[in-house]
Amino acid sequence: MSAVHIQRGFGGLIYLGLACILGLYFTFAAVQGDYGMFARVAINAEAASLRLERDKLSADLGEMQNLTHRLSDDYLDLDLLDQQTRDVLGYMRADEIAIR
């Protein structure tokens, strides 16, 4: 009878060991896996940086749309046109002094 008792105890140890191994595996996957906590932190950090970049690009787009509207046929800003002419073509008025 003691052999049967030892065999049942050994089976329980195998079951307990298998349960511990599975628990450790799933815990490791929950922390380090592709969809784990560390991956979620990295994804959230990347999302935040992409939101900042999106906001910056949106501001740049608004500025470009404003400048385009100010140089359109319907509304012409002569000061902006003068500034663009000076920047692009290098023009200057006769009463100005260029300092290098």
Show the helix and strand layout.
Blueprint: H1 2-32, H2 37-70, H3 78-89
Write a structural description.
This protein has 100 residues and is mostly helical. Helix content is 77%, strand content 0%. It has helices at residues 2-32, 37-70, 78-89. The protein is rod-shaped and about 105 Å long.
Any descriptors?
100 residues; mainly alpha; 2 domains; 0% strand; 77% helix; 3 helices
Query: Biggest sheet, in brief?
Result: none
Q: What's the helical proportion of residues? A: over 70%
Number of domains: 2
Net shape = rod-shaped
What is the strand content? under 5%
Average pLDDT score: 87
Order of helices and strands: HHH
Query: What radius of gyration results from the CA coordinates?
Result: 35 Å
Summary of the model, kept short:
This protein is mainly alpha-helical and 100 residues long.
